[in-house]
Amino acid sequence: MTRILGIETSCDETAAAVVRDGRFIESNRVAAQIELHRRYGGVVPEVASRAHLATMLPVLQEALEQAQVGWSGLDAVAVTYGPGLAGALLVGLNVAKALAYARGLPLIGVNHLEGHVYANWLVADGAVADGTPPFPFVCLIVSGGHSDLVLVEQHLRYRRLGRTRDDAAGEAFDKAARILGLGYPGGPAIQQAAEQGDRRRFPLPRAWLAGSSDFSFSGLKTALLRLVASLGQPLPVADLAASFQDAVVDVLVSKTVQAARDTSARAITLGGGVAANLPLRQHMAERSPVPVYCPPVPLCTDNGAMIAAAGFVRYQAGARSGLDLDVVPNLPIA
Questions:
Q1: Helices (H) and strands (E) in the chain, counts
Q2: pLDDT digits (tens, 9 = 90+) for 123-132
């Protein structure tokens, strides 16, 4: 039995979790900062860093208490060291270093994107442990800062197939929500508004980037902005939201399914905050030629459990990080 403490502070969630054997969540505490950043319409790095400083230790204490485990019951400390906001990453990394040094525990640096991959190994509260994705599989990692297609060949062996050339999918949702006056965060707001809309009313463009697995959503955002400017008031917000969401989902699904075919992948997995989008999950399952694995919705957004899960795999492989480990804000997965 191996217990890993996972710490995540790459953006605007302060998170800590205890996970057993890389799968079973014994605790998972997250302090979100949505209300702090809502007034700005997006994450403000300095505000995020200060909030992490204020909440990191209480969140850690809650995670240990919920897991009913003391420091002697832990085998290692896993922590995100990139990619993410530099100031935010430094808070979590320095706390993890201090804990590892003071308690004599191994320190394991984890790539944030790798954490989203291993969220698919986690078993939610009360759930029965089922199978894990068979190798090789294609993972679509989509969030506010990332849109990456990755071929996972084996544990810890990745090949990046594509990435965004401009806006990430989550960032595009945030900007679209701002254009439509739906508030922040944009993903849930767009999905909710779209439920009452006609996704075929406005044929918004798709950037297919023929011959590439890359993504581009900047043009779609601009098309929405110009469309809104051309329409009279009141705006058909539900139809606009549904049309925008359909364009994003169509591109994400089409490129992921094509990548799975091109690589002879045995499965598709999802990760990241945008993976909580229900139409994305539904259309991926309907159109995929192979099984699709999705983390439970609460485990799509940033959390410590996914860092602990990835940390477990690295721990088992003998990986250890030194106390000189530094943050890498632009750290690639491959």
A1: 10, 10
A2: 976 565 567 9
pTM metric for this prediction = 0.96
Rounded CA separation 292/269 (Å): 6
Question: 10 Å Cβ neighbour count for 139?
Answer: 31
What percent of the residues of the chain are helix, what percent strand, and what percent coil, each to the nearest 5? Answer: 45, 20, 35
Please give, one letter per residue, the 3-state secondary structure of 239-288: HHHHHHHHHHHHHHHHHHHHHHHHHCCCEEEEECHHHHCHHHHHHHHHHC
| For helices 169-179 and 186-194, angle between their N-to-C axes, nearest 10 degrees | 60
Whether residue 136 contacts residue 151, with contact meaning beta carbons closer than 8 Å, is answered with yes
Residues 165, 78 share a domain:
no
CA neighbor of 268 nearest in space, from 100, 197, 258: 258
Q: Contact at 8 Å (CB) between 99 and 77?
A: yes
pLDDT at 162: 97
Interhelix angle 237-263/186-194, nearest 10 degrees: 110
CA distance 171 to 169: 5
Coil, helix or strand at residue 150: strand
What is the structure's pLDDT at 231?
A: 96
Buried b (16+ CB within 10 A) or exposed e, 81-105: bbbbbebbbbbbbebbbebbeeeeb
How high does pLDDT run on average in the chain? 95
Q: How far apart are CA 20 and CA 295, in angstroms?
A: 17
- Do residues 35 and 179 share a domain? no
State both tokens at 46. Answer: 């300095």
State the residue range of the domain holding 256. 137-295
Q: Which two tokens stand for residue 261?
A: 């075919």
Of 318, 308, 317, give the one whose Cα is nearest residue 21.
308
Domain annotation covers residue 323: no
Q: Are residue 280 and residue 243 in the same domain, yes or no?
A: yes
